Give the backbone structure.
Amino acid sequence: MVVPLSTVIVAGASLSPFISLIAGILILIVPRLLNFIVAIYLIIIGLVGVFHL
């Protein structure tokens, strides 16, 4: 099955806001985890950008 590239890009673009929302909520609940949450967020966003997930 071949998936059009535009579908893959839209899926990756829609993933980013949800990751941001979850990261923001976690930072509000547990501020001590700020460094880890930011690092994980940046890694995930980088992977989404590189591999168009």
